[in-house]
Design brief:
Elements: H1 6-17, H2 25-28, E1 38-39, H3 45-57, H4 59-81, H5 86-91, H6 96-116, E2 119-124, E3 135-139, H7 149-152, E4 156-160, H8 169-175, E5 179-181, H9 186-201, E6 210-212, E7 238-244, E8 260-261, H10 265-273, E9 278-284, H11 292-296, H12 298-313, H13 322-329
Parallel strand pairs: 1-8, 2-9, 3-6, 3-7, 4-5, 4-6
Antiparallel strand pairs: 7-9
Length: 331
């Protein structure tokens, strides 16, 4: 029997759904147990009624307050960036008064922003210190609000290159010294890995911890995609961070921003803002310390952490990559 990659199987599956291909049995066997890229909300009459009520009760309060806090945080970030060269932001960690303002003002403002939007965050466990784990790996990556988590926990993060051009948010990302990467560009991914290695290797002038979502894109939380190994290339201890939304599961998952959805970004935020609360649990797990074999093999290290976290989440660990899926299904 010829070897059939899961990516190829996923490609056939997507084409079959569009009526462009039949799925041979040998490929059907390789299809993942859950589609990680689709989230279709099925609204009930109660959901519509609650959203209508929330439009009058919550939206008029939340939108102006959230915008005020977001703009106030942006002003702080913008003022602190004045006089700093782009090369300095990329080459050395922010220090002095800029760091004080960032940690004392911007991080609490990000937490307040999410609270105003209705998120009630419960933290389980404790974030490790830099000396214990310079890199934090978060999963599942399901919503665009995840980009605020590195700021809330006073970490730098990794962001797709397209976010560099977003008004307001680009200044937050620069202020927190995010690593920008073009996910479908091998050279850019190599540079991002090199930057991670540089930051964790800096001893005399240490960087903040790096908070990375190694799936490389958003999913529907029904499985865990193959981890990209940039977080694991240094071979250093990492701390797994598992995110959970107790009130949001299929078929009414208002949190997830999956690749394929029957709702857009505007409706996603509309349903979040019109709900009384959205519960979110952030669980810091014990630091994962790689053995010698894992230190020498980033792919093995990434795979083992992925499967460990998938077991915690009680979901399947897939050998599908976010970028590979898009390349195959859009041909």
């Amino acid at each position: 029997m010829p070897h059939i990659s899961t990516d190829l199987a996923r490609s056939f599956a997507a084409r079959a759904l569009r009526g462009k291909a039949r799925i041979p049995s040998v490929i059907r066997e390789k299809m993942p147990p859950a589609d990680p890229f689709t989230n279709n909300i099925i609204l009930t009459t109660g959901d519509v009624a609650k959203a209508a009520l929330g439009t009058f009760l919550f939206l008029p309060v939340r939108i102006p307050l959230a915008l005020f806090v977001l703009l106030a945080g942006w002003i702080v970030a913008r003022l602190c960036l004045i006089g700093s060269l782009a090369e300095d932001i990329d080459s050395k960690p922010i220090s002095g008064r800029r760091k004080v303002f960032r940690d004392a003002l911007c991080s609490p403002m990000m937490s307040l922003f999410l609270w105003i939007c209705g998120l009630r965050i419960t933290i389980v466990g404790k974030k490790a210190e830099y000396e214990e784990a310079p890199i934090l790996v978060g999963a599942p990556h399901a919503t665009y609000m995840d980009f605020m988590l590195p700021a809330i926990f006073k970490c730098s993060g990794m962001s797709k290159e397209e976010n560099r051009s977003l008004p307001i948010f680009r200044d937050f990302l620069r202020f927190y010294q995010a690593i920008f990467v073009k996910r479908n560009d091998r050279a850019s991914c190599a540079l991002a890995r090199k930057e991670v290695l540089k930051r964790v290797a800096s001893q005399s002038d240490p960087w903040p911890q790096t908070f990375i979502f190694p799936e490389g894109g958003t999913t529907n939380r029904l499985s865990l995609l193959q981890f990209r190994h940039g977080s694991f290339a240094p071979g250093l201890p990492t701390q797994p961070v598992v995110l959970h939304y107790p009130d949001d599961d299929e078929p009414r998952d208002f949190v997830t921003c999956a690749v394929e959805s029957n709702h857009n970004l505007v409706s996603h935020f509309f349903f979040l803002l019109t709900r009384p609360v959205t519960r979110m649990v952030i669980q810091f797990h014990p630091v994962y310390r790689p053995n010698e074999v894992e230190q020498a093999d980033p792919d093995l290290y990434a795979s083992n952490v992925q499967r460990w976290m998938a077991n915690i989440m009680n979901v399947p660990a897939l050998d599908i990559r976010h970028i590979s899926y898009h390349r195959e299904t859009r041909e």
